[in-house]
Write the structure tokens for this entry.
Amino acid sequence: MSLSFLAPIFLAGFALIAIPILVHLTHREKKQPVLFPSLMFLRRVQFRAAKRQRIRHWLLFLMRVTAIALIVAAFARPLLDTSTLGLAVVGQSREVVVLLDRSYSMTYGDRWERATDAAAAVMDGLGPGDRATLVAFADKAEVVTTATADPISWGAAIDRVEPGGGRTQLGPAVQLAGDLLASSELAIRELVLITDFQRSAWDGTDAVRMPGGTQIRAVNVGDSSATNVAVADVVIERSRAGARDQVRISSRVVNPSGAAVTLPVALTLDEETIETQEITVPASGAAVVSFTVQMVPDRVALGRVTVVADDVAADNAFHFVVAPIVPVRILVLTSPAARANDVLYIQEALAIGDDPPYDVQIKRASDFRGDDLDGLDGLILADAPPPQGSNGQAIEGWIRAGGGLLVVLGPRTGPGAWPPEGRALIGGAPGMVVDRLDDRGATLSILSYEHPVFEPFATPRSGDFSVARFLRYREFTPAPDPTGESHRMLVRFDDGGPAMFEHRLGRGKVLVWTGGVANLWNDLPLKPVFLPFIHQVARYLASYSEEPASYTVGQVAHIDEARMAGDEAGEIVIESPAGDRAAVAVGGSIPVVLDQAGFYTARRLAGGTNAGVVVAANPDAREADLAMVSPDEVLLALQADDAASERTETLAASLTVGQKERRQALWWYLLIAAAALLLMESALAHRTADVVR
Amino acid sequence: MSSPTRFLDPVVLSRISSLDLLARTVVDGFISGLHRSPYLGFSVDFAEHRPYTPGDDVRRIDWRVFGRTDRLFVKEFEADTNANLSVLFDVSGSMHYGSGPITKVEYGKYLAACLTYFSRKQRDRVGIVTFDDDIIEYVPPSAKHLEVVLHTIDRIQPCEREGGFELPLNKIAQMLTRRSLLVVISDLYEDPDVIIRALSRLHHKGNDVIVFHLLDPAEVEFPFEEAAQFQDIESGERMPVVPEKLREEYRGHLEAHLDTLKRRMVQNEIDYCFVQTSQPLDHALFEYLSRREQLSRVR
């Protein structure tokens, strides 16, 4: 360590120290003589006066010299070049980030108490200038308190954290900690990882490294001998059997421990225990238990499969919702002149589906009434002109409210069949029939695989549309799109002609298919891809989304507002499994963050006795495995390659002399000391002067 | 409630312009602080009888004793004889020095005024002699001279004349025809031999002598720091002085001077009282009072 100066030229100011020396050595005579009663006694000693000069008022003299020296040194801007002291170059303050595991496996035994004690102890170890940040993590990482050195706020932050239902994932947590440490300007960076080191939390592929020089300390609260049995998942199969629904509930129970266990498994529906079975789950294995229940159709039931309680309660129960079978209603309107088998392929294809089942109704377009739209999920105009008048307006209104219409252009739906209202409805004008008999038919060449209809076919061997031959199709000219967002060409023929076109109308959509309805113009219905294609179109028209029986904690469930009864303008309240209630904004799909295991209920305040919409959330089954990974393995993976000294040296080398000096700011302390000295000097000099006078 | 001794502080007294009032204030305040009668020597207490001798005042004959014994006895009372008080006040140039609020001569004026007022209350005759190297003013002791004495004290002006001791005190010794109590107020900047010789002459003529040696605190401590030309107030002589160099030696010479004076005066039965002008007046007043008490027991 050596002392250097940013502006050494000011050191010449040390010559000013000569001033107080001269002042204190010089016995300057007063100009005015001092009147004295008698020199009788002075005459006897006069010749011994002033033989040797010496400093007078040593204390004053030292204070003045020191003050001048401090001021001069301050102007010279001193700095300590502590390259040999490592971290001392940039101070000794520490930036500590504490990662506190709050996954549900931390509820095992006394893990949580030991973890919070370890987190609290971090604050005790902080020195002056140090600060710590608390990050609680499970499947997500969250900064509980920003960098602080206040023990009170630190303790309060720890108290706010509780074990949740999430699964441990170290990757996002250490990534957040690394970002926090990387942005710190403090010299020493330290990561304290408090977790039970579950193997499932660390797959070893997380390429997360702490910033260089970070000291990583692990606090392992895990226990390799811990055992846990969990209900991993539930599969629900509901089928209609006469007047009742038959529901088969299959549950998988896992036992990650090294010993087989025999335990009862109970099924509860709507808080009523339906059946209990005893099963044996092999060591490090799983067993499936099935329950068959007869249920009233259209009934929603809240179910739970539970095993006997063990030390980790969170995964002893699996919550699910048994939803009723609700078919998708599709109405197919045909031309009055249509043959009986024109919509045969569509009808047969939709009749096969059971996920969801389709309720297909075929009707002449001339028989269509506006009332037919009630409860309808999708409407298909199978080579039929659009209804006119009030029926046409009803269809348009239904589409704008969210309905889906598929218009199949065929031989009977030429340009003359489409009045202006009809063309406005489909977003374009049908044209003449294009005959491709001469070149063995057209093929579908350009498909928008990112569209929901074609998304399942995006991957290879997921459906080949190019095998279908289109001998004829009808021209279609899209109308100008003023917004640029309401028209979309989904499929084109190999000659560039439109094959499938989408027109967004209000909240609904209109799909226009130009290739004809039956296998008269093309052989697509004979191809394997036809069935899933029709199902996808029907799902898209109906805006169908499969509601899972349960979610995993950490996921976000989107609840459709339309599924809730009551006043549409009424406020919607989400109630968590813990009983917390939160009001959410009304409108469309309501996102619900599932951070607890159990049932979430969304209902309108003005919904009367309606139970609302219920979704179930369960802990991630992977968290049930309490097997541990070696803390050393994790720490080694997180540790940066360079050592602390290297970082310090790099940091020191990267700092200019001016930056080092500014970091230390020693001149500031010197000036304060000089000012204090001068104040004391002033008081002392005043007192001395009084005595002299 | 203020302390009675507050009026003995010379700094406080300097605010009183009238010497008469000043003396009255000091003496009354001083007396009020005593727990004994102030009229010492003026007591009418009977002491003893002695046979009548020719020349005795016939008014003192105790006729009752004569009636019983047929002999003439004269009654003796304590302090039945009034004393003369003369203040010999040195007003030379050195007495006009003062490092504080008051000078030595001012302090001496207060002291002289108080002593004369106090003595007058004892029915003493009071007078004053001011002198430097010669007698300046002379007020003979008289029972009616209190006002004159105070006026004389009040008229003392600063002068730069050199002081002398032998000449004026010899003249005073010749002028005093009656045994007196002589109070000398001076800073005694003179050779001790000269001082003792002059004072002894006064004492040998039957006078009781009390010397109040007045010095300023600066003369005693010599607290000066800065080098300067020191000028003798009386002679005007200058001398370069570095105080810190000779402070200790100065103090040594002064202490030797004081010791010599005290020792020699004791040897010559002269009462000596060293007073600094920073001290309250009670110190000097007590000194005088004790001396006056001794003198009052005259039978």
In short: DSSP finds 13 helices and 32 strands in chain A.
